[in-house]
Amino acid sequence: MLTIMLQLTIGAVDLAVAFLFMFGLWRMSSPVTAPSGMTFAGCGMVAAVLGSFLYVFTVGAAAKPHLAVNIGLAVAALGLGGGVAWWSGKKVALTAMPQLVALLNGMGGGAAGAIAAVELFGNKAQGGAQLIVAVLGALIGAVSLAGSLIAWAKLDGILKKPLRVSGQQLLNAVILLATIAVGGYFIFVASNDIEPLMTKPHLIELFFGCALILGILTTLPIGGADMPVVIAIYNAFTGLAVGLEGFVLQIPALMIAGMVVGASGLLLTLLMAKAMNRSIRNVLFTNFGAVTQRKQRGINGSLKPVEAADAGIFMRYATSVIVVPGYGLAVAQGQQKLYEFVKLLQAAGVGVRFAIHPVAGRMPGQMDVLLAEAGVPYDLIFQLEDINDDFAATDVVLVIGANDVVNPAAHTDKSSPIFGMPILNADKAKKVYVIKRGEGKGYAGIENELFYADNCNMVYGDAQAVLVKMIEAVRGLGTAAAA
Amino acid sequence: MSFQIEMNGFVALYIFMLAAFAGWVIIRGVPAILHTPLMSGSNFVHGIVVVGALFALLNASTVPEQAIGFFAVLLGAGNAAGGYAVTDRMLAMFRLSGNEPKRRSKPHHARPGHTSASDSKKG
Question: Within an 8 Å CB–CB cutoff, is residue B118 touching chain A?
Fold first, then answer.
């Protein structure tokens, strides 16, 4: 009777968790309902964690003597891991969000891999199907762990340059095949009870080693601007690994949640890749910009620097302004000053909107969050397809720390590595101001024709400092008129 | 009568397939503006791996198993807690114009020299 009650309770908790997760994610589809959606999902997580302590009543005879220690370890791990992550999640600067998400994602992948390790080392996965799924989940989880850690290091600036060696793709392919071969051999050995060439634990260690190296090597050559795609891919990977380990452990909540994340990660990956006009294969396996750099065609015109104050005052007397923020704004932490400046313009009757390129920043939608942090209402923020036709009728476009996403070469220059990529049509506006740190090139390492155009002026300097000067200039105008 | 869940391969495949479709359909409705919270939100959702990690740790019977299980719970718990904290923080920032939340209310907004006071309050 007791076991039936126990099974019933565990099953019911699992079902409730699955419902809360799906319902929570469903409410993510609007900024209005999204916070409550997260609350639902959060309740689901708490219920799931509390519910999993019911497993103490189901442990087998072998684990019974260790139960007290195991419970202690579990509580300690929950408190430590959860506490530290909660604290850093609350404290971290918003600009550091992409690397934190990458790190958390790696932790999920690592956990899935570790579960598989326990199952495999402990000979707990029985039968062909379970073994195959456990090994597959281990592979994906380990790759996700190693890859996410590399992505984190890159985003955090620990790893500065993409590391590329010749023959890298061949090396990656060899290691991928080696990993699959070792995993396949292990499955064959374990399911047929054959004496392996080396001991089983060594075989498992070799397998995990290969998978981790694979994750590291595939992520190392990928450049900073491709990070939105990479983060989305590893998010999907971790979800998939979690779902597969859920099957091995026969916990439906893991299967459902993992697979939902896997599908959503895949969808986001495809969206990101489309926004960059590149296939996923292209992002992962091509050394972007490395080949085409030299085929640069000459550009007519010159760079025309102007003072920040003049640009600010010019915008004050415009009717419509579109702001195009890029990663440079995040680096300069200029979002607060930007919105302060925009509010000044709005007070003077200027219609201001924000145009966001899908891959601006280092993770999907990073610019939206950055502007939201500064207090910009989201009904002023427009995505590429919604605003691109309005540039031609706009007085001034203010480009802040963005480069490749407004490069007209994507439309005109067939030899350009970004040819065909959807861009914001900033060049169509009557006047363009570009706030930029210096004369350097964008991530793609190509010159931007827009900067040399007749209707474009450059405002050099740190985005935040430039915006402060613009604010002062426009305010000075106001007080002069009042006096 | 038994309530033990027994899943053979095909039932698992059905669950995987339906969950994948559900995920695809649900996420397709999320506007681009919410893509970052969605990333970290789904990041939080796969933090459910902590349940599997707890299962593995509670059933551990050797020291290596305990060590790996501990590691798994540590990572899984971090994934879940961190994911929630980050997502919650981000979602709290989104607002419509003319609809400012109380903590940022600014009666005389854009008054020269007084804007930084409210900025320093947040965070």
Answer: no
The predicted structure's pLDDT at residue A319 = 92
Number of H helices, E strands in chain A: 18, 6
State yes or no: is A404 an active-site residue: yes
Residue A288 main-chain phi, psi, to 5 deg: -60, 135
Q: Does B114 touch chain A (CB under 8 A)?
A: no
| Model-level ipTM above the cut of 0.85 | no
pLDDT in tens, B25-43: 888 888 888 888 888 899 9
CA-closest candidate to residue A400, choices A433, A361, A430, A377: A433
For residue B111, give every residue at least 6 positions away whose Cβ sits within 8 Å of its Cβ, in sequence order, or none: none
Asked if A329 contacts A463 with a C-beta cutoff of 8 angstroms, the reply is yes
Q: Is residue A390 within 8 Å of A408, Cβ to Cβ?
A: no
Q: What is the 3-state secondary structure (H, E, C) of A50-96?
A: HHHHHHHHCCCCCCHHHHHHHHHHHHHHHHHHHHHHHHHHHHCCHHH
**CB distance A73–B99 less than 8 Å?**
no
Q: Which helix or strand (DSSP H or E) is residue A382 part of?
A: strand A381-383
What is the pTM assigned to this prediction? 0.82
A32-50 per-position pLDDT tens digit = 889 999 999 999 999 999 9
Tokens of A65: 């003597």
